[in-house]
Amino acid sequence: MMHFGRILLLILTVICAVASPDIALAQDTADAVATIDSGDTAWILISTGLVLFMTIPALALFYGGLVHQKNVLSILMQCLIITSLMSLIWVTFGYSLAFDTAGMEKGSTGINAFIGGTSHLMLNGITPDSVSGTIPTILFVAFQMTFAAITPALMIGAFCERMKFSAIMIFCCLWLIVVYLPICHMTWGGEGGYFADLGVLDFAGGIVVHVTAGFAALVACIMVGPRKGYPKNTPPPHNLTMTVTGTAMLWVGWFGFNAGSALGANGSAAMTLMVTHLSACTATLVWMGIEWLKGGKVGVLGAATGAIAGLAAITPASGFVGPVGAIFIGACSGVICFMFSTTIKSRFGYDDSLDVFGVHGVGGFLGTVLVGIFGAQQFGGYAEFSDVGSQVLVQLGAAAGTAVYAMVASAILLFLIKATIGLRVSDQAEQEGIDLAEHSERGYNL
Q1: What is the mean pLDDT of the chain?
Q2: What residues have CB less than 8 Å from 381, skipping those under 6 apart?
Q3: Domain of 238: which CATH number?
Q4: How confident is the model at residue 263 (pLDDT cuts 50, 70, 90)?
């Protein structure tokens, strides 16, 4: 009798499973949810917060300390509002155009190789149960959103203290659409993206973030024109304590920027964190050493700038190189970024106020090329390529192509803004300060 009962229970269970597809669907859903790894999810949640922290308040403080005290509030305001605007653009259509893979296939040269589709407008189809790898898709959206926020914010350091707030906001919005989204899709959009199919390596944004922003910033500072009195009569940074505080915050936040790009709490993330730190340390000491040898003084501004140069340069290589490669990249960035931020800038006379091009543009370009060397296993790297020469050419071509595109597109956008609302504040506004002229507030006490 007991055996008969067990057999009957087994038969009923099978009948229910066959007759009720909802049960099978529920099991499938449970399996999908089970693919989310809590450790990976926790780390990317933290990383998302760290990258947002890099823009507000870290970048705001870093830049804010470098300008005249009558313009410090404008820098904080710009970082705050850029973060808000870029986040809304990202959710509305930016994520879809960057990461929608509909119609993409390897080797294609159609429109989908350069820009994504529209199936995820307003995050359509993305629910709390949607999974990307081992993390919720909505978390991946949020993580990438913070990258889209900080990239245009980097540019403001090149033309600060003289560009209209309205012009900056319009430029950043259009720039994100015209420059950032296509480059992001081509590089990180997956198989079928133009750069991805070429085998371009960019772990955390050397091309996508630093080359695009750095070279666009160069064009912008030239088109807006130099500050009044540049270069002999420009005031020194008003608060280096603020700048060093911002540097430290950026350094820590960069662990989320780079190590978070592993999209998991794993060995790759751990190595990425280590090499990020080593590059920053090396570049800090190299930049400081150069200034010490040249001027006999140890400058805190130089050390802070060197740290950011090392962080920018290691960004594209961070998931592919080992400690030796990181130290070499940090040393190279310390020397070359120093040259571009001092000698070359002085030689050509452009007023890249806070060295966005010299640090981010040059550093990101340099790191993108060097990953073709130090990412190779024979140099202690972890990338999967065997021909160093070919990989260097691929990296160089992608970085150069991105730089040219960012410069041309930015020049067109700036020309259109200049022809309509204008780019620059009035001489009187520049004299009294952007804080008061543009925001009717002061960021300091008289």
Answers
A1: 92
A2: 320, 321, 322, 325, 371, 374, 375
A3: 1.10.3430.10
A4: very high
Whether residue 207 lies inside any domain: the answer is: yes
pLDDT digits (tens, 9 = 90+) for 182-223: 999 999 999 899 999 999 999 999 999 999 999 999 999 999
| Residue-level pLDDT at 9 | 37
CB 252 within 8 A of CB 276: no
Calpha distance 31→349 (Å, rounded): 61
* Across 104-114, average pLDDT: 84
Query: Cβ contacts of residue 248 below 8 Å, gap of 6+?
Result: none
DSSP 441: -
Place of tokens 């160093």: 388
Domain holding 206, by residue range, is 37-439
Cα–Cα distance, 19 to 162 (Å, whole number) = 71
How many angstroms separate the CA atoms of 182 and 178, rounded?
A: 7
Distance CA 45, CA 143 (A): 8
Assess contact for 275 and 322: CB atoms under 8 A. Answer: yes
Whether 266 is in a domain gets the answer yes
Q: Cβ atoms within 10 A of the Cβ of 343, count?
A: 11
* Domain count along the chain: 1
Over the stretch 308-364, which tens digit does the pLDDT of each residue have? 999 999 999 999 999 999 999 999 999 999 999 999 999 999 999 999 999 999 999
Q: Which amino acid is at 442?
A: R
Residues with Cβ within 8 Å of 17's Cβ and at least 6 positions away in sequence, in order, are 23, 24
Do the domain assignments include residue 22? no
Q: To the nearest whole percent, how much of the chain has pLDDT over 90?
A: 87
Does the N-terminal peptide bond of residue 57 adopt cis geometry, omega within 30 degrees of 0? yes
Q: Which two tokens stand for residue 381?
A: 């790297």
CA 12 to chain centre: 57
**215 in a structural domain:** yes
How close are the terminal C-alpha atoms of the chain, in Å? 95
